[in-house]
Amino acid sequence: MTVATGILVLAGTPIGDIADAPPRLAEELSVADVVAAEDTRRLRRLTQALGVTPKGRVVSYFEGNETARTPELVEELLGGARVLLVTDAGMPSVSDPGYRLVAAAVERDVKVTAVPGPSAVLTALALSGLPVDRFCFEGFLPRKGGERLSRLREVAAERRTLVYFEAPHRLDDTLAAMAEVFGEDRRAAVCRELTKTYEEVRRGPLAELAAWAAEGVRGEITVVVEGAPEKGTEEIGPEELVRRVRVCEEAGERRKEAIAAVAVEAGVPKREVFDAVVAAKNAGA
Questions:
Q1: How many other C-beta atoms are found inside a 10 Å radius of the C-beta of residue 38?
Q2: Rounded Cα gap, residues 231 and 245, in angstroms
């Protein structure tokens, strides 16, 4: 007799307030054959708060063992098991473990479904006061300064609202880098401890937010940044063109490549950028 394949359930968990847990979460925790959790200790606290005891086997599934454990969970699914995947907060796969398991399950024709739940990305976006009709989620930026600048430069001309996650101890450096690449006056919002007791949403120009963050910030952080203005709505002067070229060079690009990139980003001829750089050099700037 052929055994029917099981089902993979991705379950959203609260990002702060336990009362935000979706109603189906407790039910899924109680019926799953296997519960794969990013942190089994946090899972224990969650189940206690919800007043539910998992009937199935609980296993860890985090960045360090995701590659090795995925095949094991796929075998469980192929054997007919109901596997529930939960991460520490929010939806699995969104800057959290889960993508590998979903991809592997889909490849083996295993059904994948979800219990929708809270999302720091959408919550921050809605609270930011910035345009929400079109947006990009960029996750975490690289930790190294040069790589971070390079990544930011890739989206400097992006007109959709940008959403990032960031660690509190790197927030000031990240906001300063954003101000350098996007411009000091670009609007942004820093959303801290969403849905928790000390929730805070700080809005303002990037330079102002960077100065605030330099004093020290704690908690879970989501940063929302306004998209680039439409080309042609503002004139970019020679000094700004030169500044942008220098940012590219500091990120490791050769001058020729930097000039070409800035020309595309600013919507001006390469010759205009080149002339601005030469003029600044001759002036000793």
A1: 21
A2: 18
